[in-house]
Amino acid sequence: MRKTIVILLVLALAIGGAAFAVAGCGEPSPEEARAQLETDLETLKDSLPTLLNPDTYSSSEAFNEATDEVQKSFDDVIESAKTVTDIQTEDLSKAWDNLKKAIASDEPLLNKLDSIQVAAAEFTDAWQELYDEVTEQLQQEK
């Protein structure tokens, strides 16, 4: 009898947990998802100046750290954007690909700065368009 009660309790907890998971608990609301994307976009913007700072090009280590920071911030934006159904990141991704090409060029480190600045300007334009879209949608939701 005790064994049956324990089994029923375990079964009830399992069913309750499954129902909780199916209900989508833990999923951000559309407004929360947009707010997270906005935060990640701001972090991405904040990471760019280090990459564009001429002092960053004084050592490979500083350059690689700056590049890694921007890469991580970009990846966070793309991940956040997956939870926002009506956001398109293609333009930002294309601009990122161009920036990565400039970063990965075989030129000496100091010579890369000019081409990275040009690619970063295009990237910033694409970033701004996406940021404006996200903030506009957040304002509409309020």
In words, what does this structure look like?
The protein has helices at 2-22, 30-52, 60-81, 90-104, 109-141. With 142 residues, the chain is mainly α. The chain has one domain. The longest helix has 33 residues, at 109-141. The protein is elongated. The chain starts with a helix and ends with a helix. The model is unreliable at 8-12 and 16-23 (pLDDT under 50).
In a nutshell, what does this entry contain?
The protein is mainly α and 142 residues long. The protein has helices at residues 2-22, 30-52, 60-81, 90-104, 109-141.
Keywords:
elongated, 80% helix, 142 residues, mainly alpha
The average pLDDT score comes to 85
Strand pairing plus helix content: what structural class? mainly alpha
Low-confidence stretches: 8-12, 16-23
User: What characterizes the major β-sheet?
Assistant: none
Helices and strands, in order, run as HHHHH
- How many E strands? 0
What percentage of residues falls in helices of 4 or more residues?
over 70%
What is the domain tally? 1
> How would you describe the shape?
elongated
Number of helices: 5
User: How far apart are the first and last residues' alpha carbons, in Å?
Assistant: 55 Å
**Structural Rg:** 22 Å
The fraction of residues assigned to DSSP E strands is under 5%
